[in-house]
Amino acid sequence: MASGASPWLGVPPHRLWAVRPGIYEDEKGRTWVTVVVRLSPSQRARGRGSPGSTHEASIIVHLWQMPVHPQEPMSPSQLTLSQLPLMWQLYPGRRYRAMDSRLWEVVDHGQIASTEQLILAQLPPRGSD
After folding, report:
1. Alpha carbon separation from 85 to 3, 34, 47, 78 (Å, rounded)
2. Contact assessment for residue 15 and residue 89, using Cβ atoms and an 8 Å cutoff
3. For the chain, which domains are there?
4. What is the structure's pLDDT at 10?
5. Residue 53, CA distances (Å) to 41, 56, 119, 121, 122 in order
6. Is residue 110 a contact partner of residue 55, using CB atoms and an 8 Å limit?
7. Are 16 and 119 in contact (CB under 8 A)?
């Protein structure tokens, strides 16, 4: 009954592809369902109050690995309605790179009861203008 991070399961999926809004499939054919999406101010937005600063929101996504009922596949144009990436690919350093080249940090990859979970946090964009 401890709060905090769940038990570590090792390497998270190498790739996650969107098959329906909020539903992803990994390289092993397992489905991952988006159960929580949270927006919070990024470190950059909180730390700067200058008139030229951008106030970006950081996105935190909780995915649970669970079976879903098969449904007809959606076209890529239908999938782009979601604010989440169409694909994430695992990179070194516990990060995923999305199709739009944005980086997402693996906050947690563990298990709650019998459900595998993956928590990703979008990192602020690098660089300057």
Report:
1. 29, 12, 27, 13
2. yes
3. 15-47+54-122 (2.40.15.10)
4. 73
5. 13, 9, 28, 21, 18
6. no
7. no
**Alpha-carbon gap, residue 52 to 70, rounded angstroms:** 47
Q: Give the N- to C-terminal CA distance of the chain in Å, as an integer.
A: 47
CA distance 23 to 123: 21
Q: Tokens standing for 54?
A: 């951008």
Tens-level pLDDT at each residue, the chain (129 residues): 444 555 556 789 999 999 888 899 999 999 999 999 888 765 544 444 444 444 566 899 999 999 888 777 676 666 665 678 999 999 998 999 998 899 999 999 999 888 999 999 999 887 644
The span from the CA of 56 to the CA of 112, in Å, is 31
Q: Check residue 85 and report its DSSP letter.
A: -
Tokens representing residue 51 in the block: 């008139």
To which residue do tokens 């690995």 refer? Answer: 65
